[in-house]
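Now for today's protein:

——
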Amino acid sequence: MASTLSSRPQLQHLTAQLDELRQKGTHFRLRVLDDMQAPICTYDGKQVINLASNNYLGLTADPRLREAAIQATRDYGVGSGAVRTIAGTMKIHMELEEKIARFKNVEACVVFQSGFTANAGTVSSILGKEDFIISDELNHASIIDGARLSRAKIKVFRHKDAAHAEELLKEIQNEPGRKLIITDGVFSMDGDIGPVDKLCDLAEKYGAIMMVDDAHASGVLGKNGRGSIDHFHCHGRVDIQVGTLSKAIGALGGYVCGSKDLIDFLYHRARPFLFSTSHPPSVTATCIAAFDILEQEPERIDRLWENTRYFKQELARLGFDIGGVSTPASETPITPIIVGDGRRTMDFSRALFDNGLMATGIAFPTVPEGKARIRTIMTSEHTRGQIDQALDILDKTARKLGILV
């Protein structure tokens, strides 16, 4: 007699937790994209203006990237067939890493399967239980997980508060063990920029390792999208730079940049690198083409920022809470619309979708209780007409629901 998983008691605790999410109004289902990631696309059979993707520069659908992927598949096949340390390091993988290293003005680079594994794999491999991590309270989950896996002692400083970070460093300056300061370059839920320059000053003063996760800064901040290190003119002062190939670059993966010895060490000790098959040639070639475009077309980033400034200005004019009082003020194309209550936020997101706008609701535990928001992300490819239409939908829907009065 066949049995189903749902009839077994071993996982009933998961069902109970899902029921609790439904009761709170924060349970969600995955929306399915029917076509390409673009300013206007089709989710669940419905055409919507898309303010939810990380496709900052519109590269996911760029014909040059698609052609690069097709050609690499013809030349090298669909997969590498092994992990990097056994038989899966292809010439094209090395070409991408060398290109990223030159772009970031560092000695070397290694590509991971995702930004998450790049962060978690690096932090967990370079530190041990005798060491200390000084981490911003709003750092990405991958940094938090990597810190826990390292077994180092974790000290959390108030968001962007360099003075508090220094207090923590003073407390442990005479303790044995290495000290690592970590911050996001751009914080993914609020869109504000980390104080990279001030933290670099602290790293130098206290002899700490300096690490920046530039996932949402790469392709957005700095010359040609070189990130927060370039934005703050901190080249040579950041020991470990983490970036992503999944957002502005338009494809998939993460990377770590730094000294040759750092990268060589990660080859030997970073577990996600050691135990995961390397990228398909098609993805690798796509990323190479994307970095070429960053170098050749800085006007894409100019358009991104022009759209961002206009969108923020109009949201504020309409009366939306876009941060700056009880939450950090956005400084990038990530612009949260703060609602507060989780259920109300998710209801707002669903109503926006019904009215033709894809804008995702974010609630606890991704953000703190009482800080639920609609997270919007602008891209270089949105037209002024599309932005105005999105603003009109946001305004009318918010007023109908009593979010704006």
Summary: The chain has a mean pLDDT of 95. The longest helix spans residues 299-318. The chain has two domains: 24-53+298-401, 62-296.
